[in-house]
Design the sequence.
């Protein structure tokens, strides 16, 4: 009893320390963030101009020729710098850029007609229809000529520079800023996407559903290598928390094919539980049959051939790796017969589990006093009726905790089912990893789900063992 009280006291002290640490960390974040909310130093217009030029020079890397040309020929002149309250500097700028939207608006019908002719020439030559890449390759030279002839437009623009660390300033290129710098880029894209008709030989032709035409034209001036996220001016601890939050959102809450990505794990968990439960049922049936055959052979000398088959089965299943069994059963035997991956996994794990369950059950049968069998036979029962009505119920009660532990082991072993294409929990996490190129979050999520399942099952096994012990004491 004293040990139990000490354990409770230790838990309370640990929880109190954990709570104090959390409160201290929260206070540190609030105080440090408030102290860091002001810009540490001001910038002159010349210094701000240098930062703007350096940031804009990084834009043209992998994008359309027109966007590169525009970047190299636009001009942004910083007129004044004003300090703001959100750790930023506001730059009042004069911008001279090319009229991208005007170029697209004036020549869109010509580009669509050109795409239409390219596509139909390929059809006449019995070639595949033109995709967006082919359209872009054939239109871009014409577009670049028109764009370079376009006049410049001048406008006033407000830019922001954020101090992300002490004396480290970054230009914030929001979508609105990029749109203004690149001659109403978003309006130009919308104009192309909304096009319904083009003129071919004096006649209007509907092209509303010709997505490759539109995509090919947009790709002539597309701009896709800039980061529109607002710079993080938080203290290092908050930056780390923000990065964890953003990574969590990117891996689990962002949508893929209209569904949040965590659904890959949810769907995989359903298949994992299905395979585990089905395999366990098969394993229990096989295990009891094999155990009874072997015990019967040891006791009476009957069923020699059956006992030999059972020993061979046990030797193969317990002597070869589970993953090799899975691959052989699926690719060699069941796939050629048209059996799917999930039924194949259930068969494999059921056969493998049956080998271990049989030894558990055989040990339970052997633990039942021999007098129970003799008592049953003396009452006129046959050997099998005695085994079924008297010995097996007692053995089952004795091996139930061990069977529950086998269930836990089987649950973890099913993690290799993805090797044959089963969309289980592991494959769900790997699917997210392949989309986001992030290893930490998806793999840790898989481990946590398995850990929660195993801890929950372990708790149920513990409660079951307590229940059985109470039953034995009555």
Sequence:
């Amino acid at each position: 009893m004293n040990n139990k009280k000490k354990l409770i006291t230790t838990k309370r002290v640990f929880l109190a320390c954990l709570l104090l640490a959390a409160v201290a960390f929260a206070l540190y974040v609030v105080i440090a963030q408030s102290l860091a909310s002001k810009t540490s130093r001001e910038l002159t217009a010349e210094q701000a101009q240098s930062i703007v030029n350096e940031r804009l020079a990084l834009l043209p890397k992998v994008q359309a020729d027109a966007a590169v040309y525009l970047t190299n020929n636009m001009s942004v002149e910083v007129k004044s710098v004003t300090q703001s309250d959100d750790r930023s500097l506001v730059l009042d700028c004069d911008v001279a850029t090319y009229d991208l939207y005007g170029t697209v608006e004036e020549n869109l019908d010509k580009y669509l007609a050109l795409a239409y002719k390219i596509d139909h020439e390929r059809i006449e030559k019995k070639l595949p229809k033109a995709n967006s890449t082919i359209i872009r390759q054939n239109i871009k030279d014409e577009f670049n000529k028109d764009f370079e002839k376009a006049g410049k437009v001048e406008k006033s623009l407000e830019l922001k520079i954020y101090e992300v660390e002490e004396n480290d300033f970054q230009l914030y290129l929001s979508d609105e800023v990029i749109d203004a710098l690149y001659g109403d880029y978003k309006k130009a894209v919308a104009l192309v996407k909304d096009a319904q008709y083009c003129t071919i030989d004096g006649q209007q032709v509907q092209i509303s559903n010709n997505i490759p035409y539109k995509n090919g034209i947009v790709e002539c001036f597309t701009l896709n290598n800039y980061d529109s996220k607002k710079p993080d001016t938080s203290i290092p601890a908050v930056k780390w928390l923000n990065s964890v939050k953003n990574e969590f959102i990117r891996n689990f809450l962002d949508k893929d094919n209209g569904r949040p990505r965590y659904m890959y794990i949810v769907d995989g968990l359903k298949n994992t539980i299905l395979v585990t439960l089905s395999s366990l049922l098969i394993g229990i049936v096989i295990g009891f049959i094999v155990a009874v055959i072997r015990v019967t052979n040891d006791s009476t000398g009957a069923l020699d051939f059956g006992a030999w088959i059972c020993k061979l089965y046990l030797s193969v299943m317990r002597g070869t790796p589970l993953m090799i069994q899975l691959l052989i059963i699926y690719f060699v035997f069941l796939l050629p017969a048209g059996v799917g991956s999930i039924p194949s996994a259930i068969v494999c794990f059921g056969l493998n589990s049956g080998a271990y369950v049989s030894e558990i059950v055989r040990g339970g049968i052997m633990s039942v006093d021999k007098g129970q069998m003799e008592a049953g036979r003396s009452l006129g029962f046959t050997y099998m009726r005695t085994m079924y009505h008297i010995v097996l119920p007692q053995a089952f009660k004795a091996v139930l905790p061990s069977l529950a532990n086998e269930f836990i082991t089987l649950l973890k072993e099913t993690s290799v089912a993805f090797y044959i294409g089963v969309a289980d929990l592991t494959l769900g996490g790997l699917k997210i990893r392949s989309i986001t190129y992030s290893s930490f979050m998806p793999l840790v999520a898989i481990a946590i789900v398995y850990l929660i399942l195993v801890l929950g099952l372990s708790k149920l096994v513990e409660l079951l063992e307590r229940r059985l012990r109470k039953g034995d004491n009555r």
User: Anything to note?
Assistant: The mean pLDDT is 83. The chain has two domains: 45-233, 262-473.
